[in-house]
Structures are given as C-alpha cells and as structure tokens.
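call fold(seq) -> tokens
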Amino acid sequence: MLYPWQREDWQRLTALRDRLPHALLLHGQQGIGKRDLALHFAQGLLCEAPLADGQPCNHCGACHWFGQGNHPDFTVVRPEALEAGEGGEGDAESGSSSKKKAPSKIIRMEQVRQLIEAVGVGTHRAGLRVVVVYPLDALQTEGANALLKTLEEPPPSTVFLLVTDRIDRVLPTTLSRCRQFSVAPPSAAAALEWLRSQGVADVEAQLAQAGGAPLTALHAAEAEEQPLLRLLVSQLGAGPTFDALAAAEQLQKLPVPMVLGTLQRWTYDLLSISLGTGPARYFPKEQAALGRCAGATDAHRLQGFAGRLVNHRRSENHPLAARLVMESVFLDYRQIFR
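ret:
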C-alpha cells in the first residue's frame, strides 16, 4: 500500500524502472513507511498488468501470489522478531515482556545463506526476481559481508530493495554497491490528517513525541505500554526529586529501547530549552516541567548525559538485565541536576 504522503516518492521510484539498479537502498526517518513503500514497489515490479503509474493491479495471478506471501520470485529477509504479527516501522522500539525466549532481532547468517542459495537459480516465471531486506542495519558483519559478495556480482534479473532507518550503521562497502534513495517524511499537515483518519486521539501530542513520524505515532497510541510511558514522562518531569530506583521498579516491564528512546527525546527538549534554541519539540505539553528541569541543570551536563544514552542504545536489544539497565540510566539522569 501507499500512504497519502508517498505519491512523490512513488513517482521517483517509477522513474527508475526503465534503468532499474540491481540494488536500491531506501533510507530515511523511522516510522514514515519506507518498508511498505519497498513492498509496494516490489509488487509493482512483479505485477503482470501494472497500472499506468506503475502500481500493482491487485488482480493478476502474480498479485494474488504476492498477497498470499508465496510468489516464487519474491523473497523477504528480516529478523525473526518481525516475522509474525508485524506492525509498521513505528514499533521498532516496542518489545515483549514475556519470559519466553525472545525471537531474534538481528538477521542471522543462516538467513543470508538461504537467500544467496535462492537467488543462485533462475527465476521461476522468466521475469524479475525481487528481494526485500529490512532493516538492513540488522545484518551482522558476517552476514553483511556475505551479502556484499552477492551485490558485487548480482544474479541476472534480480533486484534488491534494501531498507534502513540507520544508514550510518550500514557498511560503507555495502553503500557503494547500492543506489541510495532518500524517502521523504510527510508534512505535519499530512501526518496529522492521516492520524485523525485512523482514529488517534490527541494527534498533535502523539505526532510530536514521534518526531513527526506518523506510523511511530500510530503504534505508540495503540501500544499497551502507553500508561507506563505516561508514567515515565511524569517521573522524568520530577527532575531533582526523581526516584530512580522506584521508577525502575515500576517501569521494568517497558522494553529497554522504548525507555531509552523516550529519554533521548526528553533530553533533546531539555537541551533546546537550556540553550534557548526553541520550545519543546517532542513534549510540548510538558513545557512547564521541562523548564523546571532545565533550570536545575546545565547544557554541559545534559550533553554528557545525551552522549551516554547513545552508548546505551548500542546494546539496547541485548541487555543482560533490563531493570539494572534502567536503574543505571535513571540514576545517571538524576545526577545531572544540581
């Protein structure tokens, strides 16, 4: 499917069809629909009777197979965590509090080997073969290097559509083998209109917290963790009186990436107010609390804390103990206040 704000991006993609690169890397902000755009483009490439603008007809045999997830010339490579019950890109910070072994959040080497084996044979319908890989940054070094060899010597009639929120985490050698395609974020007006059509309440606040990404905002509004997230924000607003250990106890069921992401956005707003560069971007409704917190610290401490959050996020999907991570980060947050 295409989202209302993706018409121009679709036109740009369609213009590439006459001289289609063997590898196209779609990148941009998380939660704006890059994955869905790539899947729609893949279906359009495989469609037997595409519309005048290149969109799939949704009626031919190829579209039927694509919709059923069993087109013989279409392959998707993604982490196990995205295999079942998948939501939009905006839930990348979500997770499960289940005690069962969590599905892998990386693309395993075995998946890459299976892909390489699959593209090593001819296409089944004497046309294109399309491979979608997302998020590309979920590849580990070994898998990325194995895929690189295939990108260097691409099989005939094969198109790779690669998707990432974090182009900075993609190997430079991989980047050099792809044509990069920057996906534009929607305007605030378009995002708000779409969120209202989805029945989201308090759309301005939800979109602000999502950094302008409508899919992130939609999934946050629907997330069962929403009450705990509101509690986290209210606790952060306590500033110098923030009870770090009690907060970690109350919020330990929240996924660590969700907590760290919220903290990063809160810290960004604190820095903006501390430096006088503007009002709150992510938490405009918390302007008063942010002002009080900013007045109890300084930009130097905030910048140091922001840097440490970046380091925490590098291992956010593999914490040894979620509660201990939260205690450490919350205690660090409390220390930035005089």
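Strands lie at 23-27, 74-77, 129-133, 158-164, 179-182.
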